[in-house]
Amino acid sequence: MSVAEQITRELPTAILRWYPFPKDCEIAYIGEEDAIFNMLTISKQTKVTLIQKNSHGEYELDDDSRQYDYFVCIQEIEKLREPDKLLKDVKKHLKNTGKLLLGMNNALGIRYFCGDRDIYTNRNFDSIEDYYRAYSNPDDNFDGKMFSKSQIETMLDESGFDRRKAYSVFSDLQNAAFLFADGYVPNEELSIRIFPTYNSPETVFLDEERLYSRLMENGLFHKMANAFLFECSLDGSFSDALQVTSSLDRGAQDAIITVIHDNDTVTKEAAYEEGKKKIETLASNMDKLKERGVPVVEGTLSDGIYTMPYIHAETGMKYLERLFITDKELYLQRLDEFKAEILKASDTYRGAFEMPAPKEESEAQKKRRLNRKRKPWEEEKVLLQKEAFVDMIPLNSFFINGKFVFFDQEFVINDYPVDALVYRAISSVYSGTPAQQQILPMDELYKRFNIPYDNAEHLSYLGDVTSFWLRDLRKEQELKEYHEEHRKNPNDINANRQRMNYSVDDYQRLFVDIFDQADTRKLILFGSGVFARRFLALYGEDYEVSAVLDNNEKRWGDKLYPEGYQPSDGKFKGVEIESPETLQKFRHGEYKIIICIKNYLSVMKQLDAMGIYEYSIFDPGKAYPRKRHPICDDSVRSYENSTVGKKGGKKYHVGYIAGVFDLYHIGHLNMFRRAKEMCDYLIVGVVSDEGVRRFKGTEPFVPFDERIEMVKSCRYVDEAVEIPYMFNGTEDAWKMHHFDVQFSGTDYVNDPGFASFKEFLEKHGATLEFFPYTQSTSSTKLKELIEKKLL
């Protein structure tokens, strides 16, 4: 079983893995023999009886007098037409001190207001409307229904469970990462702690996590939780938990369960036996920080449980967010003090930092990493910390009596850049309140702390340095498929919001048919930032851009170049940036404007006020197909006349191959021939010289212009295109060319990256085909012979 399969199988157990079941208690588990049942049987050392549905699809308890200490029922009540009948039977079979642990989805959960589909009807908003559209006819197929909190409480009251404690669940029953006792208000920034999961992330149109603080402010946080766990007690005794946080998605060795208790203590415990060492490391790290003069929340380790006091104070994160608004100078002073605490944690020295290799890496990825040309700052000696506590961020601190006091310092990386620690601390503060960027740009803080703020590539590198260990910890590579299936995609959210704000015709004109009339009119871009540079990189060769407009007069007269290219490259002449007043020189019907700005509404209003309506909006997340550039008339006919599905026809219509094609040889020719045998129209993407240098760490023997001409000269090739080196992946290629199949060499068959590419293509109606390379000849072998002077 893979790591991903192990983790996703265990995620549903978070709802009860923390619960303090007494040893040898008797539990009746209502449901199937699933992960929760197995966890109760093995991990909790309890006696568990499985109660399953009978042949009529109903749960039927024995008529004998057997009684249990606990009944556990997670989500099953929702699938019954008469749930109250089962609840009354459960009460009869509970001991006088017994408890029912009932997990229920919330019909009014915030996820459903954000656009998630109903888990039973697979439609939007059915639970919010109490299913009046879904089950209005007697013959409608009933798969289940969710209830609101008040409906569940009424049901429990009528069944005799009038003494109970409710826990609000986020994200949901299948991944209960956070539980909050009813009435308890968490003292932390949840927007950067909770990663919401969905049944249908492609329909979501709101950032759920950005709503939590507003819900708390208005008393709606618990009412609109995504699910509930009800602890129903016949004798009135309950767990003392106020908040439970589980990190089962980190895997057995790193998963920790944190519980805030109502006696003002906090406990941390390994979720699995394999993780007990992690708790010992935490205790040791906190002792080290204390010895080095860093203020910490002190704790004690006993029987594998780390206990510390609950602190009634603002987190460092909330304090800084509040201070930013009230006293900017003091805010900057506190950040200086925060950096001083980071430096106090360990000795520093100057040396070269080497980015660790990813835990999951294919041979091809390893080769590219080792051959990659190192950046200047990677060669320099930088300030390194011998033992870097990489989680020393404001979120993991309190502000008490004028000092930052740290907690939860589980992670240490040796010989780690101080700049990366400061970069992460700053980024974490801004992630909680993005509006700060408009008042005090992060660049000013980078400058204050001597971080090269004017080098975007260096800042991106620092971002990678600060996140590589987080990606490993969160198992992002292993759980990529799970996250794609259950987590939202920002591009989908933007697109869904766009569709809601406009009529069908306006949406089509503004966001879909953006190249309408772009061939017959002067094409003008509005905006000179990342979006505009990306547009030039992807579509600059298909459409001639006559001008670039920007409201920032400091940019007027500068030249705009495609993303990833600089004036020194000499490949692009650049497009001059001008004032929007330039539009006054043109008559209506002479131009087409494409707005290339993230916050496009202000520009739309500006153009409308000028009486200009010939515009569309470029969305980098959309897949706008590029123009076709067939090499010859036969290629034109091949593209226009598909033979797929016809007698003697090809398997695919449009095929795609990508490569460097340096030292063009028989292996390349054979691959093109085999690909053309399987498709009507073959597109070949050729890596640019800059792409070879940056991603293969070597210099091509043959320059790009000659390589692409050799590819074009092959009779099997219908179109040859340059691969924009900043957009050189399979997903980028499909978005530009909308092919039906990508052909590749068999040396990538077992590459994990290509497995995910294949999944992406199949979701979009395309696929991957692998061809064996010619064993006797390859560009690499030819280069080796040249270097040895054997050719």
UniProtKB/TrEMBL annotation:
User: What pathway is it annotated to?
Assistant: Lipid metabolism; Phospholipid metabolism; phosphatidylethanolamine biosynthesis; phosphatidylethanolamine from ethanolamine: step 2/3
Q: Which GO terms describe its molecular function?
A: ethanolamine-phosphate cytidylyltransferase activity
Q: What GO biological process terms does the UniProt entry carry, in alphabetical order? A: phosphatidylethanolamine biosynthetic process
Q: Write down the SUPFAM superfamilies for this protein, in alphabetical order.
A: Nucleotidylyl transferase, S-adenosyl-L-methionine-dependent methyltransferases
Q: What class of enzyme is it?
A: transferase
Q: Which UniProt keywords apply?
A: Lipid biosynthesis, Lipid metabolism, Nucleotidyltransferase, Phospholipid biosynthesis, Phospholipid metabolism, Transferase
Positions of the Cytidyltransferase-like domain? 657-783
**Per the record, GO CC terms?**
cytoplasm
Task: Name the family the entry cites.
Answer: Belongs to the cytidylyltransferase family.
Against NCBIfam families, the record matches this protein to: cyt_tran_rel
What protein name is recorded for this chain? ethanolamine-phosphate cytidylyltransferase
Protein's organism: Butyrivibrio hungatei
